[in-house]
Design brief:
The structure is a homohexamer. By secondary structure, chain A is of the alpha/beta class. Chain A contains eleven helices and 14 strands.
Amino acid sequence: MPNLKIFSDLSHPELAKEICAELQMPFGRANIQIFSNGNPIVEIQECVRGCDVFVIGTQAPPASENFISFCILINALRYASARRITAVIPYLFESRSDKKDRPRIAIVSRLVAQMLETSGINRAIFIDLHAPQIQGFFRLPTDTINGAGLICKFLKQRDLNNYVIVAPDAGEAKKLHPFQELMPQLPLAMLDKRRYAHDEKPIVHKLIGEVGGKIALIIDDEISSGGTIKEAADFFQRLPINEQPSEIRVATTHPILSGSAMTTLNQSGIKELIAINTVPVPETKKQVAQFEFHLLSPAGIIAKTIEIIHTDSSVGEFLDKEYLK
Amino acid sequence: MPNLKIFSDLSHPELAKEICAELQMPFGRANIQIFSNGNPIVEIQECVRGCDVFVIGTQAPPASENFISFCILINALRYASARRITAVIPYLFESRSDKKDRPRIAIVSRLVAQMLETSGINRAIFIDLHAPQIQGFFRLPTDTINGAGLICKFLKQRDLNNYVIVAPDAGEAKKLHPFQELMPQLPLAMLDKRRYAHDEKPIVHKLIGEVGGKIALIIDDEISSGGTIKEAADFFQRLPINEQPSEIRVATTHPILSGSAMTTLNQSGIKELIAINTVPVPETKKQVAQFEFHLLSPAGIIAKTIEIIHTDSSVGEFLDKEYLK
Amino acid sequence: MPNLKIFSDLSHPELAKEICAELQMPFGRANIQIFSNGNPIVEIQECVRGCDVFVIGTQAPPASENFISFCILINALRYASARRITAVIPYLFESRSDKKDRPRIAIVSRLVAQMLETSGINRAIFIDLHAPQIQGFFRLPTDTINGAGLICKFLKQRDLNNYVIVAPDAGEAKKLHPFQELMPQLPLAMLDKRRYAHDEKPIVHKLIGEVGGKIALIIDDEISSGGTIKEAADFFQRLPINEQPSEIRVATTHPILSGSAMTTLNQSGIKELIAINTVPVPETKKQVAQFEFHLLSPAGIIAKTIEIIHTDSSVGEFLDKEYLK
Amino acid sequence: MPNLKIFSDLSHPELAKEICAELQMPFGRANIQIFSNGNPIVEIQECVRGCDVFVIGTQAPPASENFISFCILINALRYASARRITAVIPYLFESRSDKKDRPRIAIVSRLVAQMLETSGINRAIFIDLHAPQIQGFFRLPTDTINGAGLICKFLKQRDLNNYVIVAPDAGEAKKLHPFQELMPQLPLAMLDKRRYAHDEKPIVHKLIGEVGGKIALIIDDEISSGGTIKEAADFFQRLPINEQPSEIRVATTHPILSGSAMTTLNQSGIKELIAINTVPVPETKKQVAQFEFHLLSPAGIIAKTIEIIHTDSSVGEFLDKEYLK
Amino acid sequence: MPNLKIFSDLSHPELAKEICAELQMPFGRANIQIFSNGNPIVEIQECVRGCDVFVIGTQAPPASENFISFCILINALRYASARRITAVIPYLFESRSDKKDRPRIAIVSRLVAQMLETSGINRAIFIDLHAPQIQGFFRLPTDTINGAGLICKFLKQRDLNNYVIVAPDAGEAKKLHPFQELMPQLPLAMLDKRRYAHDEKPIVHKLIGEVGGKIALIIDDEISSGGTIKEAADFFQRLPINEQPSEIRVATTHPILSGSAMTTLNQSGIKELIAINTVPVPETKKQVAQFEFHLLSPAGIIAKTIEIIHTDSSVGEFLDKEYLK
Amino acid sequence: MPNLKIFSDLSHPELAKEICAELQMPFGRANIQIFSNGNPIVEIQECVRGCDVFVIGTQAPPASENFISFCILINALRYASARRITAVIPYLFESRSDKKDRPRIAIVSRLVAQMLETSGINRAIFIDLHAPQIQGFFRLPTDTINGAGLICKFLKQRDLNNYVIVAPDAGEAKKLHPFQELMPQLPLAMLDKRRYAHDEKPIVHKLIGEVGGKIALIIDDEISSGGTIKEAADFFQRLPINEQPSEIRVATTHPILSGSAMTTLNQSGIKELIAINTVPVPETKKQVAQFEFHLLSPAGIIAKTIEIIHTDSSVGEFLDKEYLK
């Protein structure tokens, strides 16, 4: 594949290497540093003039620094005359800030989209945006890889007969759609969260549907502090014994696992966490897990998507057939 | 309020008049016609130079013609040197096309947002967008009035003890949030739709939660053909008798009621339809209804929002307190 | 011609088919529908990634719906990653609204140009814009095919000795230039229209030049209601008998023929109407004509222009030599 | 009128002074120079922060230098934080390059429009653009003062009974419209120009209409070299004596009168030249005229238009009523 | 001053408070937090609709996070309908990356300028940009406060007879211009840095001018690691004793003082460091200084500049007269 | 090199021819004229559709006319569908106006950058911008050829032992950097200019460094009126005889030599002027020189840069290695 180049910022070098390995390509050389005044600085170290460049960067903590470094890398490639720049962003910065649901807040993911455009991207690839509408914040072509495809492939290797899919709130219920499509035999349940007074946090109020004696598979697009899972687990424990699930297992796309998330998850008593390697999970975190922790690699599907885009084949059909877009 | 002017296209003159009446203001004079070659043409008939103009237009069928006329009206105001133009759009064109969930479709509401920007608006006011993220498709300030406020005010005049809120599918479940906030005592149920084969339409598969013997209040943001309601009603009829609701009532923001929607609703056996007057419902449609049909006027809240924007007060606080944004 | 694709909206399928036949190419597959809420929706059904796409659409009535559908089709192609999109627009929406000759009107064809840019076109091809300056409303390359070439080719097959070209008003006189260039032997006459009071419509006041005993060939770029032709014919009838033309024949580029235009033309007593197939003329209209009705196909010249653009040859030279640009 | 400021470049200081005198305002102080390397440089010498600034500049020769200086002046005002900048351009640079009528030429007045936008104008005022569509090349509000109003006011002071309006070619015929509206009793004639071979210049071929024994009032929007007038005069002289006009008089908006134009006009034997002072006519040129030379000042109407815009009144109505827009 | 509001991000609260105190204004209420996934999130807590808002943020380490938070704050204000937003940036992010002096690097301060524009600023105020040309990277009005004014005011309180200004390299020499203007009696010297081989770092090679026995006042716009000062001091020590300065004193605008900068400065043996409080200097750093450390507050001049801009007075004249722009 | 085309405006035909000769390519045909009304007009006379076009133009006097003609040429190429347009600008218009160092002036080179973008360039190549930051005023890729490379190559053919490089002021000192890199053995001196009162011009006040008995090689990026050189020469003459240089030689990139510059240089008593042929120097000027006048051709390096860009090789590496970027 002549003229194809892959670059990566410093946010998730392991994933970038896996993708290059899948494509049997060397890594684009770039020097990315932070100056003593805290300013990131980037130097591309090979000619990219006229090339079709894919730039990999994920925006896990330190998210702002990762995001800015990524933008500078893109900008350097743009002014170094790359022909086309595709941002490959497994976890998009500020993806949760996708609507104006309180007065005087910013829709930050729109700003992020505009900043990426300003930096010089021509297109972007994501894995599971917090809302699919975020694609519309960009005014250039984007593709979203659906994490459900990877997770369901993994789950289908086991007997799912006793499983029930649980949405941790109504907002998440909508996102279960691809799971429903891929595993149509599984029943569904949802936790109903309510806010009792205007200034209070919403709390789990009721279970809609049934999980009694079943394996509750809680699905959430991102696990940050682990609070949502803990809350669900606590609620289940307060149910009459026969209405409680026999086990709680969790599947997520983005294992942010910030702060004391591992402790919180351990306290929740979950049996398993299935996640996609969209952000780096340090070995130390994996080791403290008191549950099965499966980290699925998206490198294959990303590599294939890059190849398809580079050769002007159909991304939509590939994602549809193979992994459910 | 000097320098404030209200204009309207031809899409919903009755609502426009109500809003002007609330504001105790005359209507801006404009001549809007369709030429013999099918081209809309607009002439503003009074000076708007330096004015703060609000333009009312809703995009019910004939939706394209209404939308284009609205854009031309805005463009004429822009070049006639209006100082600020706020589009007031009770029902936004192509609001349902808000994500790219199949290959090679357009996110048409992003295009609509860009066309409105191109026409010359400075800001926009909506009532219940199909997804709140659509605000992010605009790169200028917008405000969304939450129809739930109006509907709940109306509902709360009655005894709701036996009511249960029903989401017709998981996508709609998320939008019930404001109803849950405003009527926290009401239980929730959801219809689970599944697609049995890749090329088939999703159909109602199961009820999650319980409605037996209760009044099922189905809430949907828009009723076009009435098919969703009919499907739900049919599903309820197939349930064991004790699991069936005692009555079905429906609340919606946008009563599009296109084609044979009234017949379909009559066949569904619903007892009541509560809707907001965001699009014109012809008298003939109201008369054939074999159910209570309540059309709530948004003129008061729109008029107040206009006044607040014009006088640089806080829209967010007003919508929050009075009507739940 | 690899990577070349032709798509069409629903506005003039017959012409689109003829163009594809000329190019010996299949038609691009796309599904274009109107939803029950009046919203057009488009799905491209084949991969266009990296392709050089030409999209055919003409904006005859229902003009707004045709225009919006065309924009959505373009937008879907843009986000489906077409490399270049050329709009092929035989009859441009709002082409007559090309200047601000009254206070507070919009120059709507500028807005149309901006909306097409916003939708995602890279270039455009037209046939006979109402004014050649409209090209300047676009900020991207455009080409205009001059209908006079086709019409003169057709006319030159007959003896033109007794013909005189008649401009129906001074505005049209300027547009006769290509006819004068192509048929330099034909004399010219012009109807002088005046407005007697500020609020009145201008009416034909005088003939400048001579048509007595000759065949008056009235040339107008567009015939909508037929009113202009009827007015000219009526004026000729009021002239002294020896100053009247022996026959009236009419040539036009765009046969909109809206409403009762066919009746009006029949009443005008014209002997012939020569028009270009830029907008669909239903068979029923052709059948009621009490005059010779010649509909010339622009498919050949459009197909050749597409081929030239696709292969980076010179459009200007082709149009200049073969058909007079 | 607080916050109103008038600036001018060096292109037509006399007109700028007249306008300020009409408005009873001092002149904005600015230093405009050409450096030794040929680069214009501008320094605004008074505070304009928050002001409503009108900048006067006409683009007669040296046209490029005048245009660039004008743009720099505007840019300096923009970055000096003027609140609104209105360009007042009696004669617009490159106004004749308004369409692409030969392959591979630029529509230069579109580029001029874009450069003025880039420089920082918010709106513009012109006198008689070469084509009214040029307004559409700007994507901001513009107003055009119609020179016909001034000229007709002047002409109506005399007995016009024996006058006939003559268009020097079909292109100009269209522009006679306002003269026809203002002096509806005057007959019309037109010179028919043809090109006998593809590479030749078009020459006057025939007179359409009658001027025999009458005063031919040739109207052209701009007189540069005087060639068009000379050609018309020569053609008249070749007519049979009884078909010749008794006198030739000329009215124009823009008296460019470049090179040996005065000699050419003298040789044409015209009796009178009526022009508007949109570009400076040096005293030396006026003195060699062998005909009556009337230079009408547009200062009054420009001053009034500025006042109306500044006070947010209706420009359209003013121009319509008083001077015919 | 009605409608004036001051907001600040979390980067330098002490300075923001001082500025508000100078203006006798309360602080705008905003909640700025970092989510558990590392994403900053902002909520404006008072109405800013129609207000003239100044937002204070400096981009010292953690520079990326400070910059992104600042952009989000601006974006929230923009969509909360502030009328005008002026960014007040004492130390601009990436100001040192101002040219492309090696292949394939980005001019990052241009990207920063574009990102600020994208976020929604209308204008910006800086203190001492690394190069004055950086103002040109913005396409909106900016003002730069010259730190030399503050520093010279402070220096002039002492006897400067024995002082010589020293530029640490040729690049800095150019920036001494304002010091030369304000203290014209002081002689000048410059260190000449050379690079002996292509891959080596440039090192101090020679002193141009004389400092023997005098107080060398080294002036640098920013002190980050302190390396430049140490190098100069070391070079001086290697000079013959009579060519060495009697003392080294240092003046700078931006006391970044990152990492072990204080140690490095202590080792350089400088007698004094004069700096402006453009970035927060923690108390701990001040305490370890083995030299006089004077931190001059820019709050007064910033407050005055804000007031002037808000009231549409002349910033240029104020800065020129009082503090030398 | 298929699809490569070179065009030139009329500003420096000799250089354009040399570049084409180096590339062994014919010249692109274009007709560039000035109309009688002072308006430049351009017609491209060969097909450029899909081509990679380089357009050569330098902006020496008449600078405005040259600049505008250049922009129109670019715009004609853009709308003639060139695939990529690279402006090759040996001497950039308004390059000296690069910062806002007085109130209410424009940064004109930013405006120039924006006008070039507006005209339609995709990239640009310069020789020695007045400040390297000017690249940042463009929002597209640019490359700058460093004139020092050519000059040093030429100088190194002689014995430089007795030479000292002299910066005529502190501003120029910074630009000596490449000369220092290329000729590291040469000592450096600088003239210190001061302004004694606020309204006075800065004058040479002192020499920093030593030139006594040596050959002073004054380096300045541009010589316009010759005033700076004369001032330096006069200052040297006022020095004690043993501190005076033995000879003055001058090297410059841009020999503007406007007005009486040759006389001024002759009066300065310089022995040599080395310049690059970035702007045309008429034969008459060369003949009056009372000093050696060497005009170095940049055609070779420009031709090579064009070839490298056209073939997607690395410009940075080429300029770095061969000529020092």
